[in-house]
Prior knowledge:
The protein is mainly alpha-helical. Helix content is about 70%, strand content about 0%. The chain has 3 domains: about 60 residues; about 120 residues, Tetratricopeptide repeat domain (Serine Threonine Protein Phosphatase 5, Tetratricopeptide repeat, Alpha Horseshoe), CATH 1.25.40.10; about 100 residues, Serine Threonine Protein Phosphatase 5, Tetratricopeptide repeat (Alpha Horseshoe), CATH 1.25.40.10. The two termini are about 45 Å apart.
Amino acid sequence: MKFLITGFLLILFGLSALIFAVLLVARWKKNSLPIKLFFIISSLLSGFLCLISLSLLVYFTVSSAVPAKSGTSTSDDSDYLPTFTGDSRTAGKTPERKSEAARTIEKPAETKHVAAKIPAEDPAKLAKKRFEQAVEMSKTALETNDRDLYLKSISYAESAAVIEPSNARYSILAGKLYSQIGNDYDSQLAAEGYLLKALEADPGNIQASLLLSDCYFRQERFASAAELLEKILQSNPALANNPPVIKSLSMCYLLDSQAEKGCASLQRILKNSPDNETARISLATLKFKMGKKDEAEAELRKVISAGGLNKNYAASLLEKGM
């Protein structure tokens, strides 16, 4: 609507400026000085308003671009950790929800047209080429805020995933690009589909699993996200020392109203790694939400007495009363 209104004003003021200019030139000798001044001022004013309308039209066009660049890299082998960091403000931004039955039936776009257009060359080489092009396009799109180029990078990533579905990296890239385009349901569902395909090709792929947990979180499927994160931690205990993973796990339990279950999980982590400050602060947060203020403060004091990197943060939480 704003494009139509701005376009209408652009045409209106442009025609007005042209008409006043033509009348001014055609009747210059016949008109008195006041009339001449009226035509000159009217022509200039209409022209000025025309320029403003043109500027607004350009602004509206440019502002329709890809989402703001996040801290997550789009490189093929880069850090695929979840983009959520335990901020409840990101929850609830997903549009209409769909039933589990509908979710089971629906699948991401398979881009069948892509498979039909595969030229007669080595499929593996073609898939690799499409993958590399998708990586470069997505980088450029995010740097230049070019939405069309970003969507094109998704189609190239999908093409690579369709040509060579056994290569988990290709499906991971397609899933990641979809997940980054926004929190809307369809994008996250498409991302989920490609990440599940990646896990079919490589069941132990941590990158795909972490991104999938992020998709579940964005869809407000907190129980599924927490369950997947628990499985990841069981098979990869070292990730218990990864702050984003622990914060995400804690937030999933909190938003799913399963604080007690979250406390039990964090206590298991602390049993094996008592110096894990992130887990202890997360445990304190859950205990505070459960109304166990004394226990929460006790956990924070342990962090403070340890004198680690989170000492000041724990002290500020204690001072504020969580």
